[in-house]
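Summary for the lay section of the report: proteins are chains of building blocks that fold into shapes. Here we show the chain for ATP/GTP-binding protein and then a coded description of the shape we predicted for it.
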Amino acid sequence: MSPRRNRPRGGEKPVGREGTDRYGLERVESWQGEEWVVRQVGGGAAAKHYRCPGCDQEIPPGVAHVVAWQQHMGADDRRHWHKACWNARDRRSAKLQRSRNAPRY
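The coded shape description reads as follows.
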C-alpha cells in the first residue's frame, strides 16, 4: 500500500497563500451611522507594531487583532484594534487624551 498524499496534485495552491485571502474575510458593520469594513488578522499575519485607538495601547507583532476602516475611506485610514476593544467601542470614550510627545502609530 502506498502512503497517503496530504497535498493536492497538480498546480492547485492552498487557499490563503496569495493575495488578500490570507488576511481573512472582510465584513461590513455599522457603527455611529457609518459603514465600516472589518477584517480579522491572525497572529501569523501580524508582523508590525500598531497602536489600538480603543485603549491607546500597543498591539505587538504576532497578536491577532481586527483591522477596521470606513467604507468610503481609503486603505490609508485603516486602524488596527484589539478584538476586545473593537467589540467594546460603544462603551469607550470618543476622545483619547495623549501627552504631547506620545507616539501615534
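Put simply, here is one thing we learned. Residues 83-87 form the longest helix (5 residues).
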